[in-house]
Amino acid sequence: MPGVEPANPQHRSGITEEPVYAQPWMSVPFDDYDGMTQQQYQDSVSPFVANGSNMPISVPKGWRRVETGRPGKILYVHMATGAISRYPKEQFDCNQSCWISKDGKTLDQDVIDMHPEKRALQLVREQVAQQAALKPPKEQAKEEENRPAQILPMEEQTTSSALMTMDDLEPSTTASSLPVALLFPGQGSQTVGMLKLAQEIPAVQKMLQTARDVLGYDIMDVCLQGPAEKLEETRYCQPAMYIAGLAAVEKLRLEKPDRVDRCRALAGLSLGEYTALTVAGVFDFATGLKIVKLRGEVMQKAAQASPQAMVSIAGLDLDTVQKLCRDSCEKPEDVCQVANFLFPNGFSCAGSAKAVERLQNMAQNTKGVLQAKMLMTSGAFHTPMMKAAQSQLIAALKEVEGSMSKPRCDVYMNVTGKRITPEASPSEITAMLGDQLIGCVQWEPSMRGMLEAGITEFYECGPNKQLKAMMKRIDKKASDSTTNVDV
């Protein structure tokens, strides 16, 4: 009836006071949520759920916003590289419909559009500046006196540390080195699809653009599409593995920059030695790639000059393997010798095809053998059968020797199994690279030398885990400390 208030339970019972209700659980702060209520937490981590497509959320291409194991803690994961960052964007305020900093201030659009790593660097500098402002003047003066290098303002920075390429890397004269070694695989570790995990990294994209100009073809297409038979060809495989190793370094730099910039030692297996020398600053990227391109071409030509092969043998000691190599050479022109000392009782042998086939048969019938397997490589690498390729490689190295630099850290060389220091001259390095082409690769001695020098952390930079598998045979503890940086 108009004008008459409907009946309700309070009127009927005579109760007039307001009922007392418990505080809604969505508004109760939780300790594990850093003081946020459930509602605040849901609004901060899932604005797209509450507001749909109207919510102006902008996460950089290739990044995904995820919640950590602790509620309220948000991280951002780069889908291509696996890199984790706290700063691709700060927090989105649903009430104000804008991005805000951790102290609640609205972020300008230029900050929102800033590259995640550059924003992280900016925040760190702001934090350092704030901490320095709180220190007594005397302490500030003392720190200024002992500071080894000037920190440039952000506007003077031309590139963030995450985007530095090998060409930008300078020897560290102030930071102490870490007991870290970067290892680079060689031909045989290639796989169709490699570089897929690193192709979105800006520094890798820059390298691939340079590679197209140097090589005259798209190496990325060969890596991603293959076919495997093409990628196995020495002329394609060596440039691909060289780039893959450097791409892995850029991926590692995003995740653990100090492991790259402050590593104490480098080593690469066969072709991987050129990658190691590039990371050491001996070559710039383009120069190294030109040398690797020529190396692959002349080695393939030398391999096609006569039937050649390589075989992997495990389980037999060196004296036994060398005797089998000699016994397999039935004719004066036959060649068969140890090409790689890989791990204890683990070798690869190379030479003329018939002699290597006989070696495989004899090894399979020798007591104690664990493996005698023919390798995919087409040439007798690291034997005198590469003599023709050696002369052309040395000539090319001599041409660029004037632009080569001394290494920024120790590099363990294949031909000696020992390290060269930052005092090594380019002419010494050129001679070793020439000898490596026809001489045995001393990989196991190199790894043992690193362990004796105090290296405790290893990173295998490149596809597959062959170097880690070999490290397991050399030193189990070191293998457990070896991380593969796949691309």
Task: Report what the structure shows.
Helix 7 crosses helix 13 (285-304) and helix 10 (234-255) runs parallel beside helix 12 (272-279). 36% of the residues are buried. The protein is 42% helix and 15% strand. The chain contains 20 helices and 16 strands. Among the domains are: 25-122, no CATH class; 180-303 and 384-485, Malonyl-Coenzyme A Acyl Carrier Protein, domain 2. Mean pLDDT is 80; it is low at 47-57 and 147-174. The protein starts with 8 loop residues before the first helix and ends with a strand. The strands form four sheets. It has a six-stranded mixed β-sheet with strand order 13-12-7-6-15-16, with helices on both faces. Strands 11-8-10-9-14 form a five-stranded mixed β-sheet. The chain has a three-stranded antiparallel β-sheet with strand order 1-2-3. The protein has helices at residues 9-13, 38-45, 47-51, 109-112, 116-133, 137-146, 202-215, 219-225, 228-232, 234-255, 257-261, 272-279, 285-304, 318-328, 353-364, 387-400, 426-438, 443-452, 466-474, 476-480; strands spanning 63-67, 74-78, 84-85, 91-93, 98-100, 178-184, 263-268, 308-314, 336-343, 346-352, 371-374, 410-412, 419-420, 441-442, 457-461, 482-485. Strand 1 and strand 2 form a beta hairpin. It is an alpha/beta fold and 487 residues long.
